Amino acid sequence: MSDPIEPACPLAPGAAGACPPQPLADVAVQRWHSGGGAPQFYASYVAAEVPVALVFNGISHAVMMATPQDLEAFAVGFALSEGIVEQPQECRDLEVTLHGLGTPDASCAVHMEISPRQFARLKDRRRTLAGRTGCGVCGIDSLQALDLHPAPLAAPAWREQLDAARILRPFGALAARQTLNVQVGSLHAAGWATPEGELTDVLEDVGRHNALDKLFGRLALAGRLGEPGFVIMTSRTSYELVRKCARLGVPAFATISAPTALALQLAQEAGMHLWAMCRPPTALRYA
Questions:
Q1: Yes or no: is domain 157-286 CATH 3.40.140.10?
Q2: What distance in Å separates the CA atoms of residue 107 and residue 100, rounded to the nearest whole number?
Q3: Which of these is catalytic: 91, 135, 138, 278?
Q4: Of 68, 141, 199, 278, which one's alpha carbon is 20 to 30 angstroms from that of 169?
């Protein structure tokens, strides 16, 4: 288990008293009916989506479109799951800065210092990510950079006890823990569950990859990386999610929707137990 990290103040110098971008935005909605009649007017919410720059040692490495919440966790999780650093302690001096507050161009940046060794390695394979909530390889400039051959994972004894009841238990508790999504219906969630199926953490974001990085960052900041447990997600099982889980040593991964063939290939190569279509009362485990 890793030691906790102490994040810095979440606002940039000079931004004291400013309101950071909120994860939800107020909107006016008209409800129309196919049977005719006048529309109903009411106030509602939609998910915010803002550019978030991830800055390592003063150099912007990636700009992702993300929900502006849990950004320190997002940056730490991204650094770990993308192999930029190997240990949480290598992420130092975390600071979130805010730009263009109160305007349509509002954005955030998360700054961190990483070790000279890791920064030199990052510069060797540096890539620019065109952040988006959909799919794509996001600016990777070579097939080798896809990293499609994860190292074999450890096989903990508790994993052999995972059955449908334990896998589905956290999914039953997930909706009530998605405090943002219950208001907007458009956010992904990544959750952490114990081997008994108890749901302990839930992180939300407009992007499924971002939600997973936030979850890993939350665990890293609390010094909990490496504790027994598995990841659940409200998304399809994409190869990128499997790759991130494999990098962080997660031995079991469960999602609501089906996997792709490439996701299965990566999970099999890593020795990861992959569950999908987890919708009570059934779940599929792919051999």
A1: yes
A2: 6
A3: 135
A4: 68
Q: Where are the domains of the chain?
A: 50-142, 157-286
* Two structure tokens written together for 136: 């794509």
Asked about 135 being catalytic, the answer comes back as yes
pLDDT in tens, 117-174: 899 888 876 644 444 444 444 444 444 556 778 999 999 999 999 999 999 999 999 9
CATH of domain 50-142: 3.10.20.10
d(CA 274, CA 153): 13
Within 13 Å, how many C-alpha atoms sit on residue 3's CB side? 6
